[in-house]
Amino acid sequence: DICELAKAAGATYIARSTTYHINSTIRYLEKAIKHKGFSVVDVICDCPTLFGRFNKLGDVTQMMLKQKEQAIQFKKAQKMSPEDLEGKIITGELYENTQKLEYTDAYQKIIEKPEDVVGIKFRVMQTPIYIGLFKYLGSNAIPMPWGEVYTAIQQGVMDGLTIPIGTLKITRIKNINKSKNPIFIVPDLLL
């Protein structure tokens, strides 16, 4: 399911339509373009020359009418059982999140004072002092072994990470992190 995959990948606007429902398709595409964030519009298209012919689904008209028959609006689909939805195409605006900080906006956020870390999910070293410090500052401390950090960054599990200066210099974390997460640099020596 393209839409579920998009949601798992962090899309903040997801819609689905068909070529039969052209007015809805145009509306969803316009909204996706204007939406601030990662948007996906899944448009189910007819393909009479290959898909239709090889699967004996008929000509263009028959395939378009089939889209009309199979399509069901998302709000209506939520009230139906999985058995009733079998063979249906769920259309409409499937997901929208306007509260999530957009990727490039998150990059621009600079942490200058303790209040700036409130609510941010930080990977911290698995020691009580770091966990306690970030909880005290109001952020969400995620204790995590270093070996899991690369994958966690790629999957968006955290908003930022703590990293000693020495580790920052010898790792390739900047290659993965690029412009995604704030890095809270921890001095190697605490006095």
From TrEMBL:
InterPro entries: DctP_fam (IPR018389), THDP-binding (IPR029061), TRAP_DctP_sf (IPR038404). The keyword Disulfide bond does not apply. One of its GO terms (molecular function) is carbohydrate binding. SUPFAM superfamilies: Thiamin diphosphate-binding fold (THDP-binding). Gene3D superfamilies: 3.40.50.970, Bacterial extracellular solute-binding protein, family 7. The keyword Disulfide bond does not apply. Keywords: Signal. GO terms for biological process: transmembrane transport. Pfam families: DctP (PF03480). This is Thiamine pyrophosphate enzyme TPP-binding domain-containing protein. It comes from marine sediment metagenome.
